[in-house]
Here is the input.
Amino acid sequence: EVQLVESGGGLVQPGGSLRLSCVASGFTFSSHWMSWVRQAPGKGLEWVANIKQDGSEKYYVDSVKGRFTISRDNAKNSLYLQMNSLRGGDTAVYYCARLSRMYAPDYYAIDVWGQGTTVTVSS
Amino acid sequence: DIQMTQSPSSLSASVGDRVTITCRASQSISNYLNWYQQKPGKAPKLLIYAAFSLQSGVPSRFSGSGSGTDFTLTISSLQPEDFATYYCQQSFSIPYTFGQGTNLEIK
Here is the structure.
């Protein structure tokens, strides 16, 4: 079964740090771009970051640039999101997601999602 | 960044109705457009990719159309399990922005 399982969420004070992890199973992790997507309470979806198969390319939404770092360990089938200088606006459910090329040459979509891990930034 | 605007933001409909949700991009995105369904407390699910291609396992009552800046998701005959929130997303350029969502409720 194809699966993504996130962990690492919790309550953190403003200015603090947190590291999210995601373990993949049931597919060849090293063959896929991976993403983090978040959803603030009662709000819509927001794409956060992408990372290429070998980690050589990384992209971020402007609101997290310089504060968040996406990384991966293909030997451990794992994706990470290091979040520093956290703010109240970062409070959200964070989803780990598999980005797949659905249609040649470059039509990508998120076809597998984790169950999400909740990050709450509050004093 | 490309802005994605969905309409309506909410919609009430009955089982058996035909429903259309619209998504507009702030610039041309060819057909780099995906649709997702999300139920309360659950992760989103991919329905349609590349504007009109049905994801494996998704019922054929779902269909997508459009190109350029204007896109639609149509549900031909609403079923009880279709009441959910629907999001469009562009994959033309990073950041891969989502629409604000359309909440489909039971009338």
